[in-house]
Structure formats: structure tokens, C-alpha cells
Automatic annotation (TrEMBL):
Residues modified as N6-(pyridoxal phosphate)lysine: 51
An annotated Gene Ontology molecular function: diaminopimelate decarboxylase activity
Pfam families, per the entry: Orn_Arg_deC_N, Orn_DAP_Arg_deC
Domain Orn/DAP/Arg decarboxylase 2 N-terminal: residue ranges: 33-275
Keyword Metal-binding found: no
Protein name from the UniProt record: Diaminopimelate decarboxylase
Organism: Heliophilum fasciatum
Amino acid sequence: MNNRMLQSVQKKYNKTPFYLFDEQGFINNYNEMLDAFRAIYTKYQISYSYKTNYTPYICNLVKRLGGHAEVVSDMEYELARKLGYPEEQIVFNGPVKGARLEEHLENGGIINIDNYDEAKRICDYATLHIAHQYKVGLRINLDVSGVFISRFGFEPESEELHKTTQLLKDHPNIQLVGLHCHISRARGIEAWRKRVEIMLKATEKYIDGVPEYISLGSGMFGKMPEALEAQFGSNIPTYKDYAKAVIKPIADHYSHIPEEKKPILYTEPGTTIVARYISFVTKILNIKTIRGRNMATVDGSYLNVGEICTLKNLPVIVKESGQDRHHYDAIDIMGFTCLEQDCIYKDYSGELAVGDILTFENVGGYSIVSKPQFIKPNSPMFSVNKEYEVKEIMREETFDDVFSKFNL
């Protein structure tokens, strides 16, 4: 985000806090990833993760760029449909699919089954509609790091996976056509290589013939400001690095297959393509020192910027207020809530003053979608395009937004 973007929004909305979406930066990043992967495998397709940031303006932008929708709930599914997505461009994942599952199945949408009970539910529906043919996929549980045991999908070679595949085969109007996987906390190249290795072996074992699709989920590093990238270490892969390690083995595996019969290869990026392109703008309201601890309180909260601020110090840009400034070797930037843990930035070093405008970068992932209606409503969001035109894409929440659902 550059200073001109901030100035453009402040001319339209002269208060804080608010979110700022860099539309052109998002587009450029999206296309860079897409081009790097399609240069190796032409049937690669982005399926954007709605749970990461389901701002409708951004989801619709993905649609205009040719991306598909990856949803994990009825709410997200309904949004994709309202945006005009055809069923075959909506990938329905998740461990607890809602009442719209059967509608999506009936209309030819992509469904990746998470567990045996969900498979049984689909089979029961198919039995009642025996004249119709249905296609489904399965989520494969991965062990690529040993850091934790994922709770999602089917463990390869497990009794549950065997029982589920047999259940599907026993239904003449159900066809298993694809496999899906996703795992968190494993963004490195080696973990992704192992992911591909496991998935290719699984397709050979559980899919009859060439699959219609393989979905590798998400979890790649995206573009980051240098100050944040340094906190992850020096070996941050580029999109071309991922393409060489992840896309090429699949391209090689299916090189003997005619182009029209090769599987679609999905990844489901969220944070990877959106995180850097949303910033959160907030103002310092007061500064104080208690028992040697310096604290600056702002009108935003750690709840506005997402979990990442509890793990890393987000890059922050300071716009000076013109008031008397003081240099701090270490000062915590605290949020408006009554929670002791509401710290957006730990041990900031530099000059600050009351009235300074702080812009926290890289907050596009799991921030807006995770913000609770706690103490005060959420902030508005503005999009700035390459001509620096400003559009409000999420209005400020109101008292009625919070309380109209309660019975008085």
C-alpha cells in the first residue's frame, strides 16, 4: 500500500478505523500465480478460498478473473450462487456441509467428501434418485510434517477410507472422480512435494482411470512486505519455485495423456493471494506508561487484523499527526477492547504521538471474516484501483446490525 491510496480514502472517509483494499495489487498477484502455474500445466485452475476472506467485491473480482469458488458452508455456497457462479465452478469442501449439499450434488457441483457419514448421506440421496448419475470426490488426510495430526479427510490405507470407497462403488449411480487435500502449517517446498507424491499415489489406488480433477488445497507463501517476510526466514518460495516443485511433477505424471483428458489441477489459495492487499488503518488515541511498560491505544483492535498479529509483528506505516513526538525503544500498540491480550504490535520501536495514523499491512487473511461483534461494530472497507478511484465495498456496521437479531 502506498501513501496515495491512504490519502485517496481519507478524502472520502475522514475518520478511522477502516480497511483498505489494493485492487490492482491483488489482480497483479493473482495473475502472476496463475501464469506461473499454467506455464507448466495448462489445466491448472485457481479456486478461491471464501473462508479466508468472503468480501463479495473480492469474490466477484476473482470470478471476473476466471477463478472458481471454494466454499465450506451453506452461507459461502449461497454467496457464490448469488455472484452468478455455475455449480460446476463451485468446490464444496469442509467437514460439516449444510442443507445445500444435496442441491449442489443434484446440479453437478464439485463435492469433496470429508468422512464416512457424509458419504452415507450422499449415497442415501442417490438411492432415492437412481436415474440420475452423480460425481463426487474424497478428501485425503495428509501427514507431511509430523507437527500435528489433522482431523480432516480420510487417512490413506485406513479402514474408513476402504469402507467409504466400497460404499461409493456399490452405488451404480455414483462415480468417484477426484481427490482433494489440504493441510495447514506446512508451507515449505518439501512439504508440498510430499503432498503431491501422496496425492498421485492415492489417485492411482482409489480412482478408476484418469481422475477428472486433483485438488491440492492451499497453504503456499504469498507476497509479503520485507519486514514480515524476514520474520519467516530467508527461504520463502516464489510462485515459480512452487510451480517447479508442485505443478511439474503432476504435468510429468500425465504427460502421456491427451490434453483434453488430463485432470483439472486445483489449488485453493486464500491468504496467498489476498493477505498482502488489505491493510487496516487506525489512529492512536492515547499513550501512557504503567510500571515501565509503554502503551499506545488505538481505535482498532487485534480482532480487526486477524490471528497473524499474535504470531508476528505486522508491518506498520506511521503517518505523523503533527503533535509532539517521542521516541520509544519499546512500546506496545494496544486495541480498544477491554481485553489485556488486545495487542496489535509488541515492542514497537520508533517515534509516535497521539493522533498518528497507523496502517497495518498484510491483514487480508482471516481478519474480516473472524471479527466478532464484540464491544463495537466492524469497520468499513474501501477499494482503491490503479487510477486511485475509491469505492466503499463494505459499509461500517451499525447498532442495528448488531442488535436487530435479538428479541427485546
